[in-house]
Amino acid sequence: MKTRIAAIEFGTSKIVTVIAQSGSRNNHCDIISCGKVDYAGYSSGDWNDWENLSKAVYNSIIAAQSDAGQPIKDIYIGVPCEFIHVVTAEAETPIKSEDGRVSLADIQAVEDIAAEVYSFKDSEDMVIHRSPAWYKVDGGVKSMDPTGRKGDFLSACISFITVSADFVDDMRELMGHVGITINGFLSPSLGEQLLLTKPTDRDQSCIFIDSGMYNTEFSVLRGDCMVYHAVLPCGGNDITEYLADELDVRYDEAELLKRSAVISDDVKDMIKPPVSRDKDGRRIQYKAELVCSMVSVALEKICRLIKLTEEEARVHLMPRSRVYLTGGGIALMRGGADYLEKYLDRKVEVASASSNKLGSPEYTSVLGLVDLIFDSIEQRFDEQETLPMRVADTFKGLFGRNIN
To answer: Which of 86, 136, 225, 398 is the most buried (most CB within 10 A)?
Structure first.
């Protein structure tokens, strides 16, 4: 029997509400309907336009309902990157099974001890995910599945994702206005990263960069979790505003110029440059080399911040750690990924998930959110569940149960 769910995701410039159904033969899930609404977004851990947020949420939900031809009674909330916090803790416990081999109880015990190492009791924030970065038996080789290994002690590094109490209160107020029940809070960032990165790359650690309109999320993944997370105050909007100021054109014209520019060491050109006219109606011809050079200047500032963040996170990285890039800030620019690759001196892969309704890199976070929801539902109702699986521990604490 197929399951239908509704989820809402708050991007840097769009609110996306979807109704999804558990999967067909080739897909984990199918997007049944989608309601996309532009809004003012968020920055520095707060909403840019709280007064109009309720209207934007309502319009997004109504659009998804209309597209599906069914009402939304309950919903899962995707928590934006500005409102989450990631911490890791290491812990160790004696292996207590009679045969001296790691059991599920030992794994549960070491994770609970890790939660105690980083005490959440004094915080109003809510733990929504806990996930393993690695396990070790008697200080040996790091592993994602230590079950059955023989030894005296089991140690682990566990990642915790928390959501701010203010965000939870905001969502309860907003959903209360429209009479919709909240099923739980999840991190679209984590869902997107697990969906788009390869498990083998995560075993060696990898970088995930989600560059949106107003900010850029930088995460380091190890195992099934984030071990480093930062939000940079820069995105595609910085490039558009720079072009608008330097060329003295409207914002929408600057956006079209940015999208048409090709950023390359060999090519300074524009593909289908926008038609612009001055106040007297005369057509304006923009020099491709000038526009591309300006785009490169603004892009270089973003890449410089990303590079500085990579250096701060270097303790979690390896020389061959891959970089995954998504979001509409850089990934949709012609040559943007190549520019970032040369700047970081690491292989950069533009990552996007296929969907019947949402196929662009700027919508992969909502697809990751939906995928995360269905994974959690399957695990909750799977009577044959055996832990730890590669993804299973990722969803402990999924529905906002505090881990003590």
So the answer is: 225
